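Re-running Multiple sugar transport system ATP-binding protein to confirm reproducibility after the cluster update. Everything else is unchanged from the original entry.
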Amino acid sequence: MATLQLKNITKRFGDTEVIKGIDLDVEDREFVVFVGPSGCGKSTLMRMIAGLESASGGDILIDGQRMNDVGPADRGLAMVFQSYALYPHMTVEGNMGFSMRLAGVPKEERRAKVLEAAKILQLEPLLDRKPKALSGGQRQRVAIGRAIVRNPSIFLFDEPLSNLDAALRVQMRIELARLHDELDATMIYVTHDQIEAMTMADKIVVLHDGVVEQVGSPMALYHHPQNRFVAGFIGSPKMNFFDVTLVGVKPDGVAIRMPGGGERHVPVDGQHLGADATLELGIRPEHLVLEEQGPLVGKIQVLERLGGQTSLYVQMADQLVTIMADGDVAYRVNDTVHFGFAPERAHLFDADGQVLPSLQQHPLAGLTRGDNRSNGENASSEASA
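Result of re-run:
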């Protein structure tokens, strides 16, 4: 497989700069996911790596070789798009082997490579079918197979699951993770869906407005977001945010006054804070706990019972707070609830949206998907922005 380096990559369309000086290292055999909201530049960055867009500045290196002036066909990459782009008049075998046929690969060699890819993707019984006789998930597997037979140095996936229904997306996430482990390949994946990013990535690159906000393992981003944007983007449901008042700073943390009164001590480093500092507290819905004597109080506006979990949307003063609770909670709409949180689960952000460093390291913060493999090996090395 291969490594990828981006050095101060920029992209302009006229006077508009959409990619603003990105530096990134992708290690050999890593599964790296670019994630961010629509318009953040993730697909543009992917297209520059593929050679479908030229970089306005900076260098793109694959295995140490500068690729800026190398055409897409000669970069040794294979790209899977959101659209399956299959030829309707060709069989599955014909679609998967078409690029090799254009390249003049002998028929027997083409068939051997197609059969090998079909076995990996469980497409062997479907080789004689045409695309109209396939489900959406099967068509996407054919598109992936078309990439596999090229034996690329790096696989590029541009939102490949967006056209699938919810059940198929879950199935394809599992299959892509399995495929990465089986091929031991370097893969770069673009999505706006942070659940896809969290479940598949060795390393996540969070993009916003053309810049990299943070790079790290899924659990590092979940437990230790560097700023308010990453904190609010990673995690589902989204993190709750509260305006709080600074009470005091000590070596072991920061004392704050909560909305509605009551003080809490949060174990973060606030030594640089001034007495009039503006602070915002962030707590994930799953870290809010229903307590009869909890310091926070509100009225339930909506209940969403999901079986094992229940989402409570609680009106607290002038904001709506999301709480994830046990599926069997007995509350009803319009009930008043008290709730609280463990201080070590909280995040404090300054006026610039930057997080105050935690004084406690979560034991799972560096965990990647590779750490869950049966042989205990981690296929990636974590990078931090």
